[in-house]
Structure formats: structure tokens, C-alpha cells
Amino acid sequence: MKNESFISGMVTDIKCLGKITFLTVSHGAETFNIVATHDQAVGYNKLKNLKNNDYITINTNQQNGEIYTKEIVGVEKNNKGTIPESSNAKNYAILLNQIRSYFFDNNFFEVRLPSIHPGNNKGDIFEIDFFGKKARLSSSNALYSTVMAANMGKVYSIQRCYRAEPSKTSKHLSEFDMLEVSFLGQCFEDLICELSNFISDVFNRVNKLIPDQIKALPFEEIPVVSYADLNCKYGLLNKGLGKHEREIAKNGPTTVIHFPSKISTWSALPIDDNYTYSLNFLAPGVGEVAEGCLRDTRESFLRYKFAKLDLCDQLNWYVDLNPLPNIKILSFGLGIERLAMWLFGITNIRSLNCFYRDKNISETMKYGK
Amino acid sequence: MKNESFISGMVTDIKCLGKITFLTVSHGAETFNIVATHDQAVGYNKLKNLKNNDYITINTNQQNGEIYTKEIVGVEKNNKGTIPESSNAKNYAILLNQIRSYFFDNNFFEVRLPSIHPGNNKGDIFEIDFFGKKARLSSSNALYSTVMAANMGKVYSIQRCYRAEPSKTSKHLSEFDMLEVSFLGQCFEDLICELSNFISDVFNRVNKLIPDQIKALPFEEIPVVSYADLNCKYGLLNKGLGKHEREIAKNGPTTVIHFPSKISTWSALPIDDNYTYSLNFLAPGVGEVAEGCLRDTRESFLRYKFAKLDLCDQLNWYVDLNPLPNIKILSFGLGIERLAMWLFGITNIRSLNCFYRDKNISETMKYGK
């Protein structure tokens, strides 16, 4: 704590014992425990009727690690209370910080990727008129992230992504935070391992900082199951995991690997005619949190595919900007709000942030009437 | 460095002295210095014709801090070279990391703000059809950041912002990284002080990590000059600083304060009928990098203003969500690419990132032909 004499912030706890009052005052992520006595604190009676979330400025005197009040300089009453999402937003800030620390400690570069993408030939996207050209808001930065990994080795980004789906479920937003991770590796198992390390490490880091906020149960290892095995068990018929997601992950976080080609992204490398080097990460109570794959970087295949789909103008840069077509590039994309839902036991994704977009714009729908 | 025996990465330096070769291999932000000898390295002749940016996998043996080659497992030739912007992108990643470290160390919460904003009544914005509602891409998150500060004390965000200006200058992009900072304070001087601390501290942090990449000259204090004084000197006629920006900041970074009401944001608190509590931060060779103000949070004024401009539906939430209308909220917004231009001596903003948007989409304009 800085040796300042003036402290300003919101009252987060107050105990008045007549001629002595104990205050907790927070300013941003910093918290001060302050003592005020009737004898020594000028303006002591300004503390009367002070409540949580009121704003206070105090001139203090700091001795032996204790903070004493010289004067109550000002008090501003809060008659509305704070935004109810603020406390989740603080946990979310800590999660973001620990995610970034993980990648910094593991030698990933943060890259910044464009959110205006060329072309708009897709159903669930927000269209943009980009100076007369067809464009759209990013629904995934996977291709950009892949190219950056091919050039820089190990990269991650945390940026907004968009899905123009007017969904009203408890785990979908039309604008959300996407973590994209890409790196050069040896084989598909490197991806399973990296994702598992990331999840375990972030769980431990956040649990160390704010253990009372963590609602996810501790876990040892993250089990890996193949789609083919789940197919036998649930009769998935080469479709998505859908309603089975929660059942599969009911005992703890689970990684499902080797999805059928029919439901995999075109950018995943095939294993054979039926399956691809792909994975989904499922969390208890939430379902899908991340998906990833070993990228198919075969130049001739990609050029053939783009030509067939008439996407050369829109996507040939993806081939041109990969300087190492025979190297394995591993990638995953993770919805950070969903990770937060699992870790902090949040049942509705809307309660993480006051300003959310589902099929509505929260602030104009809920406030300003 | 981890005690792994397999090392993969891009060759960033190679010196072959016949029967001994010294290699530098980078993987992400991690760098290895490796020795290979003709006697001990199986596949030594794979090193022949190896060049910078080629990709290599080596089985190594690590003794006394030295890394020796047991086997050259694989080599992948890079025939294209890496993206020319990669080296600037690495510096940019370090800058982002140090900016975030500054705010973490100073007890700011990172907040995530929406980039789809309600309404589209403005000239230089990208319009969006948001499920039938008029919306636009964020040109500033200042109002959201202000509300979050009123509720959480000290906040910052780093997100994409957008200006639909088909500009072709060397310092404008239509999609860029905006740092928004907002906090509760005592007076306008707190803002001058916070911005100055931030700039000085980030300069020192980055200079400590990558001194050879810093091209900005060292500075002691950041001088503060008033618009009124500059008006006398340059005859500004209540207009922007325009072409005088570089002259004003030619000797070092400079903060200009108290702009005329006519060219200030409506959200800045007036000092009197002529001037506002506002500031611009100018950097040598770049010009404007940041602007900020003491927010006008007077509830009755804001409601009157929004009613007059028929913006109640679009903006009344801004008043409703501020629980402390009589508290001073200080804010600034900073273009991170411009900060990077100054620090790293970059003359064209496009050379920071392979994927940029000016009036074109860089990757489809430059590649994939």
C-alpha cells in the first residue's frame, strides 16, 4: 500500500461501535481497513447513516500498519446500489488476468486479430458494408490465429466474437470473449496436452487467489474419450453431442476427441475418411467450452477446396501466409464466459456482465426507461 | 527452461564452422542456444543449407546449462520467409503485456465492454442490423468505461474500436486497439497525473525488457500546456491542434489541457462557458495518442441534453447506471498502435500488424492473388 494520507473509495463494510468505527474501503482492486474514533476523527458524525456502496474520502494517519482517521473529508451517498453484475465482473477480471499470465509464463505471444472479416457468405453472421465491400463480424479468428502461429510459433488472442443467432438460452450470447490459441507442435496429442495443462493451471491459479469464489469441483486429470466410443454408448449418428454434453461431463471436465468429418470444421486434418483430428472440451453443468483441431495445412487440398467453393478471393491469403505447410499447427478456441460459468458456478451467462448482447442490447432494454 | 529433450522451433541464427554448428532456435517467446557436432549429432548433415526461419526438431542432451544435439529429427524448409510484420508484432505483444501489468499493479480491474452499440445516428460509424434494431460498431467505449468506474472504482479495457473513415494517412486505421481507462478521483489533476504515470511507467517497463527496440527518446517529466496558451502562440481559433501537434510535441511527449467547449466531447465537464476539463496527450513524431476528460455526470444536465437530442432511448442508461452522480470520474482513451509507433519508431501504422483495415482489408488486397 502506498504511503498516502488521502484514501477515497467505496465503503464495502462498516461496523460502528459508538465512539469507534471500523471501515473497509475499496478503490478498484485495493482494499483498506480504517479505524475512526470520535476523539480523533474530525467530522466523525459524517459516518452516521453511512452504508455499503457509499463513497468516502478520508484523510488518514498510518502507524504500525494501522490506518487511523484524521478527518472524514467527504461522503457521497449511493442511493442506487452498484450494478448487480459487478461482483462477477471482478471475478472475471481475475480470470482474464490469470489466463494471460498462463500464456505469458508459457512463452506465447499475444496477437491482435481483425474482427472485420472479408466476405459475408454465411448464415449466422452480422454483415457489414466495409466501404462498399462485403464484410462481416468475426465468428472465429481461428484462421488468423493459425497463420500467426505458423509465423511466430506460439500465439494466443482474447477478442470479441459474434454469432448472429437470436438465441435465448442461458449459455449463448451474440457477442462474447473468445480465446484463440495456436502453436506449432509434433502431433495431435500435443493439443490434448496443452488444453489440459491450460485448464488445470488456470483452475489452480484462480483457486489460489479467490478460493471462496470457485464453485467448480477440484479434479485430478481430465479424461479423454473418443467420439466413436460415445457413439456406441449414446447412438449419436454422426451428429453433435447435443443434449449428451452434460451427461458426458457430469463427473468432471472431459475432452472428447476424433469427431466425424461430417460435423468437423473443414480446417481440421482428416484421420481417415470418417474422422478428423479434432476435440471438444466439456465442463460440468455448462457443456461445450472449447473446440480445437490439428489444422489441415496441405496447400494443394486447400487451394482445390477454395476453388471449388469459389472462395479463392476470400481465403487464398490463408495459404499464402503459411510459410511451413508441412508443419503441424494445433489450435483451440474457448468461450471465456463459459469457462467462467463453470469455475464460478454461474447458471446464466448474462449475469457476468451488465452490458451483454443476446437478441437484445441489455442496457437499452433494461435501463433508461 | 524446461528439462525437455525435444526442442522444436524456428531457426533464428545459425553459424556453421564445419564440424561444429551453433544454432539459435525460437519457439514462441522462448529461445534456445544449441550446439551440434559432427561426431555426436545423428543426422548432422541435415543442417546443411539450413537457413533462418526454417523449422527444426532436435533431440537434445542438456548438461551444465549447455544444450547439445543428440539427433536432428526433422527439418522443414521455409521458402517464403515469415510475415514481415512479425517482428513488430512481437514488440507489440510485449507492450500489451506491460500495459496490463501496469494496471494490475495499480489495482485497476480489466473490464470487457460491448462493441455493438445501440443507435447509428453518426457519420463515421459502421452500421449493423442487430436483429432488426439499428446498431453500430463502437467508435469509443468511453461511456461504458465511465459507468464501470462508477461501480468498480478503477477500470481499464483494451478492445477493438472502429472508425468508418476511408483515410489513407500513416496513422489512421478503421479498426484499432483502444485502451480505455476510468477511475474515481478528486479532481482533474488526478487525470493528468495518472496519464503521466502510466506513460512514464510503461516507457520504463518496455525499455527495461527490450531496450534495443525502443526508439523514443528518454524523457523526465511530461510538460503540461494549456490550449489557451497554444492559442496565443499558433492562433488556433478554437479549432483542433491539427498540423501543430507535431510542433508542440517536437521536444518530447506533451499534455495539452483545457480545450474549448466547441471542440470537446459533450461528456466533458465545463470549466466555464469557454473551456472544459479535457486533455490530449501528444507524442513526438506521431501527434495525438490519447484524449481524456473529467466527465460531466450532472444528472439533470445529461437528461436535459439527451431529451433535446432525442437520444433518451439510446443513452439514458448512462445516467441510470451511475450510482454516484456527484463523484468525479476521470477517463482517458488511448490508441495503442499510436503509442507503439512512438515507442518503437514506426512511421506507418500498417507495419504493426499483417492484418490491418484502412479502407481496404489487407490480407485479401495483398495476398491470395
TrEMBL record, chains A, B:
Instruction: Provide a GO biological process annotation.
Output: asparaginyl-tRNA aminoacylation
Extract the Gene3D superfamilies matched here.
Bira Bifunctional Protein, Domain 2
**Sorted alphabetically, which keywords does the UniProt record give?**
Aminoacyl-tRNA synthetase, ATP-binding, Cytoplasm, Ligase, Nucleotide-binding, Protein biosynthesis
Q: Where in the cell is it found?
A: Cytoplasm
Query: PROSITE patterns attached here?
Result: AA_TRNA_LIGASE_II (PS50862)
GO molecular function terms noted in the UniProt entry: asparagine-tRNA ligase activity; ATP binding
Family annotation (InterPro entries):
Aa-tRNA-synt_II, aa-tRNA-synth_II, aa-tRNA-synth_II/BPL/LPL
User: What stretch or stretches form a coiled coil here?
Assistant: none
Q: What is its main location?
A: cytoplasm
Where do the Aminoacyl-transfer RNA synthetases class-II family profile domain residues begin and end? Answer: 95-344
Q: Which GO terms describe its cellular component?
A: cytoplasm
Check the record and name the PANTHER family matching this protein: ASPARAGINE--TRNA LIGASE, CYTOPLASMIC (PTHR22594:SF16), ASPARTYL/LYSYL-TRNA SYNTHETASE (PTHR22594)
**Protein name per Swiss-Prot or TrEMBL:** Phenylalanyl-tRNA synthetase class IIc
Q: Which source organism? A: Desulfamplus magnetovallimortis
Q: What is the lineage of its organism?
A: Bacteria, Pseudomonadati, Thermodesulfobacteriota, Desulfobacteria, Desulfobacterales
